[in-house]
Structure formats: structure tokens, C-alpha cells
Design brief:
The protein is of the alpha/beta class. The chain has 2 domains: about 230 residues, P-loop containing nucleotide triphosphate hydrolases (Rossmann fold, 3-Layer(aba) Sandwich), CATH 3.40.50.300; about 260 residues, no CATH class. It contains 17 helices and 10 strands.
Length: about 600
Amino acid sequence: MTTTVEPARRGPSGSGTGAGAGAGPGAEAGGRTGTEAGTGLARRDPLQRRVDALGELLGLSRTRVEPDALVAAGALLDRVAERRRLSLDHTVVALAGATGSGKSSLFNALTGLELSEVGVRRPTTGEPFACAWDPRGAAPLLDRLGIAPHARFARRSLLDGVHTRPGGSDTGLTGLVLLDLPDHDSATDEHRRQVDRVLELVDAVVWVVDPEKYADAALHERYLRPLAGLADVTLVVLNQVDRLPTEAAEAVLDDLRGLLDEDGLALGEHGEAGAVVLATSALTGEGVAELRAALGEVVAASDAADRRLTADLDDVTDRLRPVYVGHGVTGLTDAAREGFVARLADAVGAEAVGRTTERAWTDAGRRACGVRWGRMRRPFNGGGASGAASGTASGSAHGGAGSGGRGGRPRGERLELLERPERLERLSAARPVVAEATRSLAEAAAQGLPLPWAHAVHDAARRGERGLPEALDAAMAKADPGAVAAPRWWSAVAVTQWCLTLLTAVAAVAFVAVAASTSSVPLWVPAGLCGVGAAGGPLLSWTCRSVNRAPARRLGQQAERALRDAAADCGRARVLEPVAAELLRYQEVRDQYAVAALGTTDV
């Protein structure tokens, strides 16, 4: 088979010809693009599923995570979309190495072409060069790599064989695009920048080292160690082995493998996946055929691009792990919710309101049903729900209420625990208690979350806290029972008490009259009536107090429950639901991260 090389030429439209022919994807036969390659769809599905999940992940995270943490992931999404849009029938492999490693000589040996005959003169490469075994459809790839039109070459099976060199068969290399990069240790900053840029875009890399610089710290620390995750698409070639005796070459190879192992670069030994390590000599041709065969395997697999992108995705998701994966069980527990609601109930004085309401009913019943003789009428001291809540909010002790109540009520009227205008003015939730309840809830909800999402939970809780005390005040006013109707039987008991009091008074007068012998009535009659009146009043009052205990307790419980429910509704709407929404959002991104990281929801 004979070959020739054609430098790319500028056409009328400004696009290259030769290896650069074909201005766009699919312009030539054989230029299969990502959207056209239906036969490779099943192979690409796992990667695409992960890429889609990463895109969803970034969309859900942009307002929660610092932008700097997402830059690499966003750039990777762009690279994946761009690479898969271009030809999938080509595999881009870069030769990278240090000055003097013989990288360019190996490039010529692999291509079988004496590229210097077409004007490329260098002891060191100043810009990337490319040789495509099948240039059809490769132009967009070369444009993406930034290969200048004059640096693009094509290896074709034509009639002229004067430029061929020994290097082995081209079998299996159809679709290979081989790049010769500038030296990574070049004294020129622009050369190093070009190397870094192209290495980020190629599908596979062949690192060319020589017996003198194979252990160079710059190579291992700057490139091999950080790119250890690309082992499946990495080849490491010890070039210029013709300068070493056989034993020395084996020793250097063993030492090189040890260094690569320390770098974390998995080696493909004993049939395992990983980096390939070979020994070559561009001068004598030793090992070139083996390197060609290794490149042929990479090209034949037709998945180097996906493997490279998968490795990049693994690296990006691994670096994002602290942002999305917390420690232990995360979420809002029932205990945390109940504790928050209980603290809000304390803030509005729900328990004190219940006790005071119960006591107010009991006192009102005692006054309504109590004895009427020997008793000074005292104004009723309303100690109802609102008074207790006000006492709680102002930091005073729970219990008694305001001083603006009314005196005793006429029979059959309604019992009011506190005048309505004063109740509205006095209602106020305890602000410090509300703040502490919200802070405790946020801490419980953020437990185990990654830092950005813990901050998001705290922010949601703080936003809800800003209007929560005022909302509680309004809810307390609405929950105030206001006037409570006194039972009708109290009126009957009050009439009975007046009757007993009158009976006692009349009997006492009769007793005095009988004792003074001014009446013929037996003495025991007024004495008995007086005893009945005197004992009947307290006995009736005690009985009524016993009967009143159950409704008093029930009324107190109703008042407490009403305030608790009102406080719970406010806390749920302003704090619990926003916090739960943040936790749900985190769970969504957590699930998307699981898919992006491993292609499965199990992380």
C-alpha cells in the first residue's frame, strides 16, 4: 500500500481541504455525527442519562451553590454536547511529551510519513499538527481542537510511495486523528497553554517519555496524577529505548510502572482495563508496530470519546460530592416538627391560657352559685385567654389576667372573660421564644446536609421567622373565644341561694322572736329553718363547684387547643413548609446527583 500526504488548502469559503475537507458534520460520506449515529444509541445511553442528570442538577443548584463550584460541571456539559455533535467515526489521539522525548519523530513513524518534506521543520513543535487516516468529516473536529489549516495532513492510500517510512500496517487505524502537540515543558507559555487546552478535548492521550525524563516531577504532578482517572484512554510510551541495553530498558520500564502506580494511574496488565505501557524507538522502529496495534484497538472500539467523557464526568461528580452528599440521615423528623409546634404554643401561652380560662370559669361559677349571706360582692377579675397570652408575651408569669373586667353579671347574661377592645391590644406572642423555636427547627432540619443546602434551610427558616410573631398575634386574636355563655342552671342556683339566704334571715328573726317569748311557735322550728338555710347554701355551693369542674376543664382545654392549632397553622405556613420545600429540593438534587455520579439512584 502506498501513501501520500496532502497539506490542507484554503478553499473559497475559507474552510480547509485535504484533511480539513468538509465544512460541517455530515458534509461527506463517513462523517457520522452524534445525531446521526443511530447504531450507537444504545452504547451512549448510559452516558447521556448521566449527562442529562448533571444538567438537571446544575439547574436545581444555581441559586443554592456557589457558582465557582459549578464552573467545571458546566464546562463539561458544553464539551460533551459539542463532542457528541461531531463525528463519532473518528478517534482523536494526542501525542504529548517533554522536550527531547522524540515525540515528533514517533509521530512521523506512526504516520509512516516524512512530514518535514512538506515544510514542517522543528526540533520542538511550536503548534499542534494533525494527521487523519480518514479525513472525511474530520474538519469540524479539527476546528474544535484549534488545528490550523496548514497543520492538517491526510494519510491516503494513493500511488506515490516515496514519502512512506517503516512503521507497520494501517489496518484498524481508519478514523484515527493523530495529533503532535507542543512540548508540555516548553519555555514558551503559549505552547504550554496549547497543550493544556488540547488535552482537555482529545479522546485519548499517548504520553511519550524518554529514559532521562520519565520520572520528571512536572510530568507526574501536573499531568499524570491529576489525569489518573483517564487511565482507560491513556498510553504511556518509553521512547528511545535503543539508547539502553535490554536489561536497563526493562529496569526503566519497571520503574516507570511503579511511578505510574504511585500516581494512581491504573495499569492495564493481565487483561485488566487501564493504561497501556510500551517501549518504542522511533529511530529503529522497535515497538512502533505494537504501538500501532494498541492505537488500532482504541480506534476499533469506537468508544474512546465516550470513555474519555465518562472519565471526565466521574472526576467532576467526585469533586462535587461534598456539595451534594451529606452525612447520616437527613430530613425533618416528627420529633423536630412536634418540638417546634410545642415551642410556638409556649410563645402564645396556650397552656397558661387554658389554665386561666378554666380558673376564670370556676371563679365565675363560684360567684354565680355561691352563698349570698355574709359575702361582699367583688368585681369580677377577668383572667381569660387573652390576658394569659399577654402575660406570656411580656415575659410575666403565666396566670392572672388584666384588670379591666366587669363586675358580677345579671342572671341569664353572657359570661365575658375580658373586654374585647383590651384583648386585641394585649395580644402578643413572645418574640424570643419564637426565634429560639425557629432556630432549633432549622438546626434539626439542616442536620447532616451538605453546607450549601444547610445554609438554604437556615435561610428559609429565617425568612419565615421575620413575619411569624405578627402572624401569631393575628392568629391569637382570631382564636380568642370572646364571650362565653353562662349555663342557665347557674341562674336557678343563684335564685335558690337567695331563697336560702332569705330563709336563713327569716328563721333567724323568728328564732329571736320565739326566744323572746313573743311568739307561740316552737323554738325548734325557726332553729331548724335557720340551720337549713345556713347549711344549705354552702352545701349547694360545694355541689355546684364539683359539677363545674368538668365544663371548666373542657373549656380550658378548648381554649388551649384553639391557640395551639392557631400557632401550629402559622408555624406550618411560614416556617415548616418552606423548610420542607428546601429539603424536598435537596432530595431532588440528591437523586439527580446519584444518577450523574453512578448512573443509578444508589449512592
